[in-house]
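quick one before i forget lol
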Amino acid sequence: MSAGGPAEFDRFARDYGAGFDDPLKRLVGPDARAFLRPKLDLLRRAAARRPGGANAPLAFLDFGCGSGDFLALIAEAGLPWQLEGCEVSAGMLAEADRRWPALAARSRRWLVGTGPFPEDRYDLISAVCVLHHVPPAEWADTLARLGRALRPGGILCLFEHNPWNPVTRWMVSRTEIDADAHLLSPRTGRRLMEAAGLAAVRVRHFLFVPPSWPGARAVDRMLGWWPLGGQYLALGERRDSDCAAPDARVT
């Protein structure tokens, strides 16, 4: 993970709010959940590509789950997925237990650390604004390990900040937990996933306007091709029995 390691995230864990204690950040969204809801929509659309669709009992991993907010949103949506969360910070997982006791009871388990993961285990994996906290030299290996954790036909959804968007760069610069962040471009996200052996990698851009604005999701659907959204989704599928070993040349 980032240079500070687990302890860096432990000190942010209690009442973690993803930087939305900053009144200027609240001008573009009232809280972190407002930014998670568009990701859930995109995740459900990705899951619909699987046999049985999004309402099938998929095995799901949220890589770098933090305080469990995204998993809680999925559970509240009533999706019958088998939920697991992985997080390098034990402090963040303790906050997830405190914040979401019903989720902690439902989840099969929390995984402390970043792997190794059982291979061929998951139908769907998300990494929500996590990779920019990982040292760039470890990006390729991280995605290769996640790819191997997918079952054949499984889907990896990599959500990341878009460094080509000036508002995103401004928000990251104001967020203390992102002080050591290394933002990766949509092109880099695609190349990393392809190097990890994932097929049919597609990039979709979103958050062109604040997510709480009326019609924001319609705008995202209309402009998803345009590489200036505040964030992006790189989506790839595992089609063969083994994902590739990491290619360190991808940057």
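fyi The beta strands are 59-63, 82-87, 109-112, 122-128, 150-161, 199-206, 231-237.
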